[in-house]
Design goal:
With 96 residues, the chain is mainly beta. Helix content is 10%, strand content 40%. A hairpin with a 5-residue loop joins strand 4 and strand 5.
Length: 96
């Protein structure tokens, strides 16, 4: 699993039970472009277009720094297919 949280934070959340009762939605997307930071200490951003999103809201911009399960830091490439997962605590959702 790749996570923007990092291994240590994710492990702490799992220990506390915060990630155990989640509702999720997963959509496919494509990395459209990498936006280089104008400030040297600021990380680059990856712009991702989510398939099926409303035209004005389908682009997401995230920090282009991901962490693999083994702790290795990686970044996304333009044109790469990705999966975007949205998580919410089940107690914070409504039944349909």
């Amino acid at each position: 699993m790749l996570s923007g949280l990092g291994q240590a934070n994710e492990a702490n959340l799992l220990k506390e039970g915060a990630l155990n009762d989640k509702s999720t939605a997963t959509m496919s997307g494509t990395v459209d472009k990498i936006i280089e930071s104008a400030i040297p200490n600021e990380p680059d951003k990856a712009q991702i277009t989510v398939a099926g999103g409303d035209p004005l809201y389908r682009e997401l911009r995230i920090v282009n720094a991901l962490t693999k399960e083994n702790g290795e830091e990686i970044s996304l490439k333009t044109g790469q297919n990705v999966m975007v997962t949205v998580e919410a605590n089940s107690k914070d959702t409504n039944k349909k």
